[in-house]
Design goal:
By secondary structure, the protein is α+β, with helices and mostly antiparallel strands. The protein is 39% helix and 21% strand. It has 3 domains: 3-289, no CATH class; 300-412, no CATH class; 420-476, Arc Repressor Mutant, subunit A (Orthogonal Bundle). It has helices spanning 53-65, 165-182, 222-241, 287-295, 301-312, 316-322, 326-338, 342-359, 371-383, 388-401, 405-412, 420-433, 435-442, 449-459, 466-476, and strands at 3-14, 69-70, 76-80, 90-94, 100-109, 112-125, 129-135, 138-145, 152-158, 194-204, 214-219, 249-254, 259-265, 275-276. The strands form 3 sheets. It has a 9-stranded mixed β-sheet. It has a 3-stranded antiparallel β-sheet with strand order 4-3-14, with no helix packed on it. It starts with a strand and ends with a helix.
Length: 479
C-alpha cells in the first residue's frame, strides 16, 4: 500500500525585543544562568505583568506578512502545566482568541508554487531551560536557568498541508527568511531563537481522513527537521504495515542516535485547563495602528525576487540566492548602483563573497569588504589593470586585510601585462620550446591551444592579458 504523510508545523519564533514580554529584564542571549531575572518573570507572589507593546506590534507585523486576519479582540490565557522550568506553574499564552488567524504562506516545490495554510499566530512567554549533568552512563543533577523565562515568543501554527519532509524544510526556510526580513526574529536555530515542533501522521494515499498523529519535538536545525520527519514517517508506515497502531503521543528527536523516542502521551487542550489571564486586559488594536504597521512592512522576499529577475534580468536561481536575506539583497543592489552590470555582480557575490563568508561562518552584515570596495575591484578588471584570475587573489587579500583593491594591486605588483611586444617575446619562446605541440595544433588538433595559454599564464604568473594572449597566439600559430 502506498502511504502519504500529513504534516503540520508549530514554529516558535523569539521576538527581537530588548526586554521580556511582561517585565523589563533583558532578552540578551548568553548571560550567566539566572542573572536576567526579576520577581515578575520568576513568578513571585504579588507581582503583576505589564505587556510589552513592541511584542504586539511585531506579532501584528508578522501576521500581516503571512496574510492573516488581525484580531480586533485577542486575549491572553493561562496554560497550566507543571515542569521545573516553569516557575509559575502556568505559561501565559493565547488560546481561543489569538492575535492573528487564517493566513497562508506560498512555498516553491519542484518549480511549482504550493500554498500552506496558516491556522493562527499567537503570542506567549517562553519557559526556562533545563541543563542536565551526565555522570558516565547515568544522569546526575539537573539545573534550571530562568534567563529565558518570559522571553517573548510568537507561535505560528500551519494547517496540515505539508506532505513530505522536503516540503517541511522549504516551508521552515521560507518562514525564517520572512521573519528575518521583518526584523522581528533573528532566526538563529542553534541559540533557540527559532524552534520547530511537528505533528506527523500517515494515511493510505487517496484517503481523506487523517491518521493518528505524533508530535515530534527537539529539532533545532533544518537538517534535523528533514531527518527526523523522514524517520518518523518511515516508523509509522512500518508500524501500520506490521499490523500495529500509531499512538497519539509526544516524541523526542534524538539526533545523536537518529531516532525518535516516546516522551509522553499527547496532551489535549483540556489537559492544560486554559482560562483567560485575570491580570492582563484584552488587546484591541485599532484600524489606524494596524494600518501604520502595514505601511511599515518591507518588500518581502518573494516580491524582491520577482523584482530582481525583472529589473536586473538575472536568472531565478541567482535572484533566489541574492534575496535569501534582506542584508544580502541590499549588498547586491548597492554594488549594482555603482557598477551597473548585474550578472557580473551576482556571479561574484554568489561565488567569491559567499564562499569566504560560509568558510568563516559569517553573515553578509559582517563582510570585511564593503560594496564600494568590491566595485573598485570590478573597475580595475574592467579597465584591464588586472585579470579576472588575479582579481580573485586580490579579493581574498581585501577580505583578509580590509585594504583597498588598488593598494593591494600596487604593493604586490599585480598589474596585468598588456604590452604586446613583451607578450610576443614570451609566446615566441614557448612556441620554440614546444615544436611537437605546435605541429599538433597546425595539423588540426586545436584543443592544444589551451596548453599554450596556460604556459603563458605560468610564465607571467597569471598577469598576462588573456585577450591579447589569444590574439597573438592565433596570429603566430597560423599555418
Amino acid at each position: 500500500m502506498e502511504y502519504e504523510a500529513v504534516i503540520g508545523l508549530e514554529v516558535h519564533a523569539q521576538l527581537l525585543t530588548k526586554s521580556k514580554i511582561f517585565c523589563g529584564c533583558t532578552t540578551k542571549f548568553g548571560a550567566d544562568p539566572n542573572t536576567n531575572t526579576c520577581p515578575v518573570c520568576l513568578g513571585m507572589p504579588g507581582v503583576l505583568p505589564v505587556l510589552n507593546k513592541k511584542v504586539v506590534e511585531y506579532a501584528i507585523k508578522t501576521g500581516l506578512a503571512l496574510n492573516c486576519e488581525i484580531s480586533r479582540h485577542s486575549v491572553f490565557a493561562r496554560k497550566n502545566y507543571f515542569y521545573p522550568d516553569l516557575p509559575k506553574g502556568y505559561q501565559v499564552s493565547q488560546y481561543e482568541l489569538p492575535v492573528a488567524i487564517g493566513g497562508y504562506l506560498d512555498i516553491e516545490v519542484d518549480n511549482k508554487v504550493k500554498r500552506i495554510g496558516i491556522t493562527r499566530a499567537h503570542m506567549e512567554e517562553d519557559a526556562g531551560k533545563l541543563m542536565h549533568e551526565i555522570e558516565g552512563a547515568v544522569t546526575g543533577h539537573s539545573y534550571v536557568d530562568f534567563n529565558r523565562t518570559g522571553v517573548p515568543l510568537l507561535e505560528i501554527v500551519s494547517e496540515p498541508d505539508i506532505r513530505s519532509a522536503e516540503e517541511a524544510v522549504i516551508y521552515l526556510q521560507t518562514l525564517r527568511t520572512i521573519l528575518r526580513y521583518l526584523e522581528v526574529c533573528d532566526g538563529n536555530m542553534e541559540e533557540g531563537s527559532l524552534r520547530c515542533d511537528a505533528n506527523v501522521s500517515v494515511r493510505p494515499k487517496g484517503e481523506e481522513d487523517f491518521g493518528t498523529r505524533a508530535e515530534l519535538k527537539n529539532m533545532n536545525s533544518f537538517r534535523f527537521v528533514k531527518t527526523a520527519l523522514e524517520y518518523e514517517i518511515k516508523r509509522q508506515i512500518e508500524l501500520l504495515e506490521s499490523g500495529g497502531t500509531v499512538a497519539q503521543e509526544t516524541r523526542l528527536w534524538d539526533s545523536s542516535q537518529g531516532i525518535s523516542i516516546s516522551m509522553r502521551g499527547k496532551e489535549e487542550a483540556h489537559d492544560y485547563r486554559y482560562f483567560p489571564d485575570p491580570d492582563l486586559v484584552p488587546i484591541e488594536p485599532n484600524d489606524a495602528w494596524i494600518e501604520k504597521i502595514k505601511k511599515s512592512l518591507p518588500e518581502l522576499p518573494h516580491e524582491k525576487k520577482e523584482r530582481f529577475e525583472r529589473k536586473y534580468s538575472i536568472p531565478a536561481y541567482d535572484s533566489e540566492v541574492l534575496t535569501s536575506s534582506r542584508a544580502l539583497a541590499d549588498y547586491f543592489e548597492e554594488c549594482v548602483q555603482r557598477f551597473p552590470q548585474p550578472k557580473t555582480v551576482a556571479n561574484w557575490i554568489m561565488s567569491e563573497v559567499l564562499k569566504l563568508l560560509k568558510r568563516d561562518n559569517r553573515e553578509i552584515e559582517n563582510c570585511p569588504v564593503t560594496p564600494e570596495q568590491l566595485v573598485e575591484l570590478f573597475q580595475l578588471m574592467e579597465k584591464g589593470t588586472i585579470s579576472g584570475k588575479i582579481a580573485k587573489q586580490v579579493f581574498e587579500e581585501m577580505y583578509k586585510t580590509k585594504s583597498p583593491a588598488q593598494e593591494i594591486v600596487r604593493t604586490k605588483g599585480l598589474e596585468q601585462v598588456s604590452d604586446e611586444t613583451e607578450l610576443e617575446d614570451v609566446i615566441e619562446k614557448i612556441l620554440t620550446d614546444n615544436p611537437d605541440t605546435v605541429n599538433k595544433y597546425k595539423s588540426g588538433k586545436t584543443k592544444v591551444f589551451g596548453f599554450f595559454v596556460g604556459q603563458v599564464m605560468k610564465k607571467t604568473k597569471g598577469k598576462a592579458n588573456p585577450e591579447i594572449v589569444n590574439k597573438i597566439l592565433q596570429k603566430q600559430l597560423k599555418p
